Protein: Signal transduction histidine kinase
Amino acid sequence: MTAEPVSIRDAWSKIPSPGSVETGFERFTGKRMERILSTVVAIGSAVLGAQALIAALTTLSRADSAQIGMLLVVFVPLVAMLLACVIGRGVRSTSGIFAIAYAVALAAWPSVVDPLHRDATQQPWIFFLVNVGVVAAMLAFPLWLQFVWAAGMPFVYGYVRLVQGEFSSAFWVTTAFDVSFTLILGLVIISLGWMFRSVAAGVDDVRGRAVASYAAAAAAAAAEEERVTMSALMHDSVLAALIAAERAEGQRARDLAVAMAREALTRLANTEAAVAEEGSDEPVTAGQIVLELRRALSELGADAIVEERGVMGTIPGRVARALVLAARQALGNSVAHAGGRGLHIVVDGHGGDAISVVISDHGPGFVLEEIGADRLGIRASIFARMAGVAGTAAIESDASGTVVTLGWERS
Structure:
């Protein structure tokens, strides 16, 4: 057995069945998009986080323990989220923790941080992370909750900012501008994330349907190939053995029927084996084909002339097996329908490059187009078998006789 057929069979065995594609299909593009989003979020959040940390450290000398606690509540989950985004593990859980922790810290800022240490003219460091909380929600929450976060966080920020400024009229305009800008930016971020994820999901769905369609087509092709192979086997071996057993009258005929039945059982048992029915590609001499044809004539009890022409080289064993089986079918048809009258076989060799086998008789002939579709003796056992080894088969039949020409040429 060559390595190429083994590789082809291994590849076919890995094609998913039509029923398992949709449920077990890996959403490759969706996972890649999530990885890209988490990487971009990590970069942007790291920049804004560094900016907020610098702003916090510059005011740390005037901060009390409450503000140090705020630093820990906000930055510990933020660092955990950044690490998770970098390594690609636990992104959803860490992002959800940060989004909730930041929302709680921002809402509690006016009441937790000592009012004596607040400067209403400058924004506290926690305000730099408003949109980081929004992108964290994008990574962690379902779509409806992402929009809730994107719409709610700016208003929480605006409320905290007005409380810090004691609702002075000077803060209303600047706060309204900051809230509107943050709101628009947050909604754009959530919308972009939804759009990218939708595109990735669409690509995965199309890819899944394509693989499912290909798997269904491959399964149908494999089933049809198996059906043709089994039909040819049943016709060539099993049916022929049954007919021989029915017509066996003498001891020689009974021995022949037993041998044919034994061969049919062996071929049936080997249908699930790794070796293909037509054998391996180990080189076989063309003279071996002549010997096989003469043995087939002996088994059929027919008299015929087997003529050898040209140079008898070596050809692949699988091709030789297909030629012998197709020729045996032609011989069987001639004996069954023409009584073997004028049976003549010519094996013409062209070294190892080409070979042809011509079987002719002087029977009444037949019309090929009138043969029923369920009759596989010619379609499967001759035409399909030769096509399976890149060979050719042609049948010419009229009232003066039938000529079957089988050929193979090395490509």
